[in-house]
Amino acid sequence: MEKILYVTDAIKLNTRCLDFGVFVCNLTHSRLTGVFLENKEQEARSRQEIIETAVGNTLPGVSASALKDHYCEENIRHFRNACETGGVNCAIHKDNGVPLAEVITESRYADLIVIDVTTSFTSVRETTPTSFVKEVLQEAECPVIIAPERFDGVDEIIFTYDGSRSSVFAIKQFIHLFPQLGDKKVTILSVTHPGGKVKGDKYKLKEWLGSHYDHIELVTLEDGNVRARLLEYLLVKEKVFVVMGAYGRGVLSNLLAPSHAGTVVQLLTQPVFIAHY
User: Gene3D superfamilies per the record (predicted)?
Assistant: First the structure.
């Protein structure tokens, strides 16, 4: 892996998300490209809303546009300092257009996106994941990691698996991008309705994964409420990396329908890797 994108609202830098991006770059020996979304074409937030959104000191008596430029430059400075302190090479992209379109274009020429689940460009208060993050997860042309609110390392990788091509594709993507995690414990997690069977061949999957990992466990859970059982299992986990096959395109079909991945990224405090087929 060579190029990782750290995607952020130019006026609101999440330092915890940035720290995780630096960790991933150190792990994979990659460059971190900061994509600072300025949203100059469609900014709907007032000057006061920008002040309330931003992190840092305000400038009295200046326009909303000048205030945004100030916050952006302050955040870029902080980004560079964090990368330098963390020993990571970095680059800066200041994207002025429509945020979603800018991110999708950037993703076409990148290996991975790291994003904060609360990223938003609306003046309306949103729940997480925000509408912007949902759209990024649906449309991105490279895998996306939802950065955790706190991060204490990785002891276990959890591959959510429903037998579909897309769930296997996500696993392949993760293995390709993170060969450095080959010494971690792996759990293949499937959730079915009572009496149901997991589609695909999880034993062939385990055999294949044995070429990449030494410690592999198969876990199949049965419950009438697939979403609740999935969350019940994941929420008590610590120091895990959760891998999901897709978001919103019918991938991980029954396991994530109608929006299980959204619920997971809303509630989990662990990193979530999402790739769609």
Answer: 3.40.50.12370
Quick: pLDDT tens for 19-61: 999 999 999 999 999 999 988 766 666 667 766 666 656 666 6
Is residue 94 located within the same domain as residue 214?
no
Q: Which residues of the chain have pLDDT under 50?
A: 248-259
Q: What is the pLDDT of residue 254?
A: 39
The reply to whether 47 and 164 lie within a common domain is: no
Give the predicted TM-score (pTM) of the model: 0.89
Q: Say if 151 falls within a structural domain.
A: no
* Distance between first and last Cα of the chain: 19
Cα 102 from Cα 108, distance rounded (Å): 10
Q: What is the dihedral of CA 247, 228, 266, 199, to 10 degrees?
A: -20
For residue 186, which phi and psi values (nearest 5 degrees)?
A: -120, 135
Question: Do residues 187 and 150 make contact, with C-beta atoms less than 8 angstroms apart?
Answer: no
Compute and round to an integer the Cα radius of gyration of the chain.
19
Give the pLDDT confidence of 236-271 residue by residue, as tens digits: 889 999 999 866 443 333 333 444 556 666 666 889
Exposure of 107 in the CB half-sphere (CA atoms within 13 A) = 23
- DSSP-derived secondary structure for 204-249: HHHHHHTTT-SEEEEEEEE-S-HHHHHHHHHHT--SEEEEES-SSS
Instruction: Output the domain CATH number for residue 179.
Output: 3.40.50.620
